[in-house]
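It is worth pausing here to work through a concrete case rather than discussing structure prediction in the abstract. The textbook approach is simple: state the sequence, then state the predicted structure, then interpret. We follow exactly that order.
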Amino acid sequence: MAAAATSKPLDFALVTLQSAVDQAKNTHAYISKHRTAKLSPQTIEAYNSCKTYWGDAASGLEFNLKTIKKDKGPNDTSDYDLKVTLDHGTICATALADARIQDPEIGNGLDNAWLAVGAVNTILGGVKPPKKLD
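Step two, the predicted structure:
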């Protein structure tokens, strides 16, 4: 991650947010490849829900990244938008817990994505949005 050596906070936030996008995509890919043939219907349902939730998280985080890049900084709801988007991963974790499933790969993916989003929110807190011309 050589790009992380930048001295510009916005660039660092964008690289960090890209890592959250990548983590969400990797977690979604892991779930998508999960073999459910010999699992209980409740387990299959939980994994299928997770597949949808992590797909939504990945596409949402990617949209957030594009928006922050386009705006050249955070907008009034960037921190909220990132948290709400990643809540999809948390809903997956709840679905797995309700089905009494422990999947460390998904848990690690969620932890890593939340860590990145938390860092991005902290960094963006110090980045001023660009001034709009009237």
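Step three, interpretation. The chain has four helices and no strands. The longest helix spans residues 41-71.
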